[in-house]
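Recall the central idea of this unit: under ordinary conditions, the amino acid sequence of a chain determines the structure it adopts. In this exercise we apply that idea directly, starting from the sequence alone.
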Amino acid sequence: MTRRVCRRPILIAVALVLCGVVWGQTVNDFPKRDDPLHVRADLFDKLMRGNHWNEGVMMQHVIFPPAGKETPIVGSQEDCPFHTGAYLAALSFRYAVAQEPEVREWANRTMDGILKLERVTGADGCIARSFNKTDAPNWHEQVYFFPMEWHASEAMPGYRWMGDCSIDQLGGLIYGLAIYWELCADDEHKQIAADFIERAMSRCIEYGLKIVDADNKMTLWGNMCPDLPHDKLHALLALAHLKTAEHVTGKTMFKAAHDRLITKYHYDDEAIMAKVLWPEEWRNASDDQLAAMAYYHLMRLEEDPALLLKYRMSFNRHWFLWKDTARVFPHMLRKVLMNEEAVSDKIVEALKGMWGFDRNRRSFTIPTPTGTETVEAEEEGSAAWMLHDYWFGRYHGIIDAQW
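Accordingly, the structure predicted from this sequence is:
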């Protein structure tokens, strides 16, 4: 353990928390539900940068002391690349709208954090789910569903990293990096982002469209391989990632891989069926988010009318369910990609009511060398996707700056 947890300090810490003393939170200025949307977006952004920023990577879930630490390295971390990609996209859309120099600097520092997700693994193109600057395991590692996926870094001594990168983590990063490359990065950082995407996708191609860990074995949720049974959604994602990699890097190897998936393996036909409609219990909202991100790049970059028709069919299969929900991103996406007025009064109200997260207080049972201790502490979730949706809407002229 990083430090021994003894009963007396814990009791003192809990008492201070209960008395209203804040431990560890750098930013505590929360928006109110009835604040204007632009005020809420600004305050949630400050909360994210103040409380969730871990060397450029956005922690999806932060636990504060006494259960956590003074730095945001305790909490659920398996989806940090996904949220970091969303936050980088939010910053990039914001920079394109407002041209604020400090926003570009925040985006560049986020790029630095994404590079660490690769460097900490010690293998080019291999991406960690998260990293923590610590010489010893933190308690949350022991309650992660795959604790064996936490490793001491040989490439960055004094750091630990979480392996088993999944398709959603890779997709979140490629989505955000491509928007950063397009809207925010200067020439130097365009090359940095392009090189990262090249390494990550080259590694996938080398291993037959599989995401492989530092041990060169396919991760549990890393299968886009045409020679293995795979989800139809993964065919859509493979095409989108390769098309994006070709666009950003200019490398013909990605076009060749993309075209081979179509001509030999018919991934374009599989992509039509990317959405599982029935049985209902197989529907997955996180899969919908991955598809939406893929459509944003794929349908803007593809020039072949036949492929665009198939991608529109794929989108419409999702739309069969999306149209009846108040999920704001798919409705804005349909307006942007298909030039259809999909942002109804209901969606406008949903946009105006967007919320990031609440700060909660609950009990945590912490493993210690002598057993377990139960302490009470506060926690925060992530507002990365709320900020993404806000600035996506601002950039595409859907959200009014005065809301």
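The chain has 14 helices and ten strands.
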